């Protein structure tokens, strides 16, 4: 039974209800002051609370998709992205298509020329050696116009989220399809994945000295692999990057440091420097250059301003990054262009990001072009 299955959630809820009524029924029998009665009351209350919290946690995970499986929940995913070579004769061995599916939330989405198509892929980084799964959204125009090339956006979720969050909880493909259908933005390809490409570690899109070369993977390997398989533009103006939370920090950093590949980057509820905690470990290994270049404020203060467009979002109430976002926006110098979305209120959650994604994607689409 999978972590996100209806059966697991139903069993947890049923057990919580049974324990609640069992506690009410047995409470008079455990009303004594001897150790057995006290222990019985403690055990019943603890079991009831545990099952109640488990039910709420399972329901929240189904809605926000923090963890994809039991192994993901308990940190048992240890695949460090070993490169494997397959003698298939294919021209592009850095990307494999593993399956296809329709776009959820789009009427007629089972037909690729109506709603487009989502392809589940596996990418192997030629330079970084990182291998990770991802999803690619292809708009219906991709199949209707076989000679056309398309602008492309890399979409990165937060930590420890899953790539499925971007499809279902945050609905990026359906949003892009709807905005293009309304004529508010051009059709584009989306490449969607989580920042945890060396699970279970949170590498914050840093090239860790003697460790996972995550920035290299996102900034170089991923665009190269995708461009070698799909009809994407290869010039800098054809690529953008967007993300939420940790993914938002990654998006801003990658666009800021790699304007030769990315024309624009959008960070939804982003931090502006890489943290050091139990999930990240020592990202910098004493390397002062890596530490400085993982601080976006420092980059804006000490590096020549790149020709790139950056969008940062926050809320006046509910987000902890509001003051830092204003500081970040104030540091922009031409030719860097700064944009913002600031809500009156909104927490660090999917509901807030769903309010920001449509205008952010319209903004991103207006910054990208193909020749």
Descriptive notes:
With 371 residues, the chain is of the alpha/beta class. It contains 13 helices and 9 strands. The protein has helices at 6-26, 35-64, 70-73, 112-115, 140-144, 164-167, 172-181, 214-227, 246-257, 288-292, 296-302, 322-330, 350-367; strands spanning 95-101, 117-124, 131-138, 152-156, 189-193, 239-244, 264-268, 309-317, 337-345. It has a 9-stranded mixed sheet with strand order 1-2-3-5-4-6-7-8-9, sandwiched between helices. Helix 1 (6-26) runs antiparallel to helix 2 (35-64). It is globular and about 80 Å long. The protein starts with 5 loop residues before the first helix and ends with a helix.
Give the tags.
371 residues, alpha/beta, 9-stranded mixed β-sheet
Q: Could you tell me the mean pLDDT? A: 87
End-to-end CA span: 49 Å
Largest pleated sheet: 9 strands, mixed
Multimer state: single chain
Assign an overall shape: globular
Find the count of extended strands (DSSP E, 2+ residues). Answer: 9
| Continuous helix count | 13
Helix-strand category: alpha/beta
What proportion of the residues is helical, as a percent range?
A: 25-40%
Strand content: 15-25%
Taking all Cα atoms into account, the compactness measure Rg is 23 Å
* H/E element order: HHHEHEEHEHHEHEHEHHEHEH
Strand order of the largest sheet: 1-2-3-5-4-6-7-8-9
State the low-pLDDT regions, or none: 78-91
């Amino acid at each position: 039974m999978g972590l996100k299955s209806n059966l697991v959630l139903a069993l947890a809820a049923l057990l919580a209800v049974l324990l609640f009524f069992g506690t009410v029924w047995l409470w008079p029998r455990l009303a004594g002051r001897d150790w057995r009665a006290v222990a019985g009351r403690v055990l019943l209350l603890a079991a009831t609370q545990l099952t109640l919290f488990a039910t709420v946690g399972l329901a929240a995970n189904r809605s926000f998709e923090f963890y994809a499986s039991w192994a993901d929940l308990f940190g048992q995913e240890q695949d460090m992205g070993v490169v494997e070579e397959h003698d298939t004769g294919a021209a592009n061995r850095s990307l494999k298509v593993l399956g296809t599916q329709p776009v959820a939330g789009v009427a007629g989405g089972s037909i690729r020329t109506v709603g487009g198509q989502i392809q589940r892929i596996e990418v192997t980084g030629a330079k970084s050696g990182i291998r990770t799964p991802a999803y690619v959204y292809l708009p219906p125009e991709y199949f209707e116009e076989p000679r056309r090339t398309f602008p492309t956006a890399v979409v990165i979720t937060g930590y420890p989220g899953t790539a499925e969050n971007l499809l279902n909880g945050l609905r990026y493909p359906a949003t892009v399809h709807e905005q293009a259908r309304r004529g508010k933005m051009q059709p584009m390809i989306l490449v969607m994945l989580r920042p945890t490409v060396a699970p279970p570690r949170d590498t914050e899109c840093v090239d860790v000295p003697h460790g996972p070369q995550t920035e290299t993977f996102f900034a170089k390997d991923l665009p190269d692999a995708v461009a070698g398989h799909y009809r994407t533009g290869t010039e800098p103006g054809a690529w953008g990057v967007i993300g939420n939370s940790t993914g938002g920090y990654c998006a801003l950093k990658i666009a800021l440091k790699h304007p030769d590949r990315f024309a624009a980057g959008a960070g939804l509820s982003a931090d502006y420097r890489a943290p050091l905690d139990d999930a990240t470990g020592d990202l910098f290994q004493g390397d002062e250059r890596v530490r400085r270049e993982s601080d976006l404020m420092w980059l804006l203060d000490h590096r020549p301003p790149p020709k790139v467009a950056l969008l940062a979002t926050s809320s006046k109430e509910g987000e902890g990054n509001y003051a830092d976002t204003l500081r970040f926006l104030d540091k922009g110098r031409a030719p860097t262009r700064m944009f913002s979305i600031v809500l009156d209120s909104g927490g660090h959650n999917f509901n807030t990001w769903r309010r920001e994604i449509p205008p952010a994607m319209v903004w991103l689409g207006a910054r990208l072009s193909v020749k």
